[in-house]
Amino acid sequence: MAATQKIAAGTAIAALCAATLAGCGTGSEDSGDAAHGPQKGGQAQAPKNAVRLIGDGSTAYTGAQPNLPRPERLRPGRKPPQFVVFSWDGAGEDSQKLFSHFREVAKENNATMTFFLSGVYLLPEEKRDLYRPPQHSPGRSDIGFNDAQGIADTVEQLRLAWQEGHEIGTHFNGHFCGAGGVDEWSVEEWKDEIAQAKQFVKTWRTNTGSRTAAPLPFDYDKELIGARTPCLEGRKNFTRAAAELGFRYDSSGVDNQVWPKKKRGLWDLSMQLVPFPGHSYEQLTMDYNFMVNQSGTSTQGDPDMYEYWGDQMRDGLLQGFQRAYDGNRAPLIIGNHFESWNGGTYMRAVQEVVEAVCVKDDVRCVSFRQLVDWLDAQDPETLRKLRALKVGQAPKKGWASYLSADPAPAPKGVPGAPAAKP
């Protein structure tokens, strides 16, 4: 696929009826023990002289990821921070320049995000037969492939994003949905698809002939800890495969605005249902689903409705945010695509949500990696209490009373645990 063309989002998802982590410094009195921005005592910046090329030099170990805060346990009686995760399916840089645009939006609003890369966006069209999708012929992809310029542009954005503290996840490869798609894959077929997604990242220099190009600054085998499946399908066998491969979370489900729990050893960070202005039912926190419920299967509907439709998505997400912010403080999970559907109105809406919520007190716009780091650092009893709160429900007697008990000490080696004695 030419770099001057839009990267397709893939087969339609069936229509369904917003920094840093807490615990990085001193926050406000009733917040979750956090200050904005990477703090002293957090993860070290990657040392400049610690570059170790991996494989053909497409990737490299450069040390710990920079610009990540250190998670700490919530102090007794403190209100948890309001986490918001903005995530992007099939992240790639094309002529729309939306990847680079939203990196700047994130930077301006003290946010980090998760970019779910489609592996075939690092595979040139002429090498398409290297992809052997489960249950499909070699070289088949429902979202196409890329060209040398598109791959170079995408690699540059991935490099800069990781250095800025964003997460690089995976949206796998061919984006097969519906009959004959990912929902029919076995555990072993999911493992094969994941291995290929990693392989295309680890061999992009060889596959493009760009032998002297700078590598991606991370080891993808270690970097990759989570995903979202195409069309939110095939989750059952994917999560089994992911758990065996050491993944830490999955974001392929649909849930209400409640605190997450683990399923099959993975944090279930499903997208959520939020109010849908003008309707009696709620809407999934994804741009595509808003579109389908507004203009049907047409990605470019009535131009006279573009502004209204964008406002509708923005206001629905903001209502969902406020419901959690004033209520149970459950993390808000939002999914998007780098697309100009309905005149780009959903991109405008997402940007306005980022600008409205990520600058608020006690709000942490983070990646999934940062969220699971925080969750893993918490006392299990604290998480149990948080999960007991229903959608929009704040503790009746206030947070100071609800979370007043001293948490159990974190086990050694867990984020937030006391330092070992010399």
UniProtKB/TrEMBL annotation:
Residues 1-22 form the signal peptide. Residues 26-46, 58-80, 400-422 are annotated as: Disordered. The keyword Glycoprotein does not apply. Keywords: Signal. Residues 405-422 have a biased composition (Low complexity). SUPFAM superfamilies: Glycoside hydrolase/deacetylase. Gene3D superfamilies: Glycoside hydrolase/deacetylase. This is Secreted protein. It comes from Streptomyces fumanus.
